[in-house]
Structure formats: C-alpha cells, structure tokens
Fold this sequence. Notes:
The protein is an alpha+beta fold. It has helices at about 1-15, 40-55, and strands at about 25-30, 60-65, 70, 80, 95-100, 105-110. The protein has a domain at about 1-65 and about 100-110: hypothetical protein PF0899 fold, CATH 3.30.2320.50. It is built from two helices and six strands. The termini are far apart.
Amino acid sequence: MHEFSLCEGIIHQVSRANNNNLENVEQINLEIGKLAGVDLNSLLFWFPVVAEKLNCKHIKLNVVEPLGIANCKNCTKDFELVNLYDQCPHCNSFGNYEIKQGRELLVKSFNLISKQ
C-alpha cells in the first residue's frame, strides 16, 4: 500500500502546483529511478484507483525509469547498479561507490488540457 499513498501525494503535489485545480490536468510526468524502492507495477495499478477517488480519473500517468548509475570510489569508473550493494564490475569491490542516478522520485512536469 506504500504506492497507494505515493499516488495520493503525487496528485496532491500537482494540485497545489496548479492552484488547487486538477480539472485541466491531462497528464503527470514522473521520473522514478530503478533504485528508488518503488514497485512501478503497483504504482501503475493504484494510480487510476486513487485518481478516481480524488475525482480526477481523466489524468494519465507517464513514467520514465532512469537506470541506477554509480561511480566506484576504488577504480573511479561508472557502472550500472542494479541492486544496492552490488559489486563494481570493473574492480569487484563491494559497496564503495557513490550513486549518481537511479534514486529519483520526481514529478517532472504535468500537461494541461489544451483549449481549442
């Protein structure tokens, strides 16, 4: 149910950013990194349920999922980090890295319905 409350937070954040108005919001664009600890399938399942509960079922969700990228402090090389505490594929050291991307959980933007 963690993702249920995330959906509520996302919708409330967009509402506040749009002067407490959701009627003209067409799409919400998210960036959720692979290392963010979010079950994307669960989030995508719960979003329409929460949107209907909050009377904004017309809103679509677009999610970009950046890979986890880390920089090894031993060999200074970047590598794709699939799981936290994976070893560096270049020098085989464990856990001695800085995560550069993949932990994002951001509302990047939202699109408004165009008036024609």
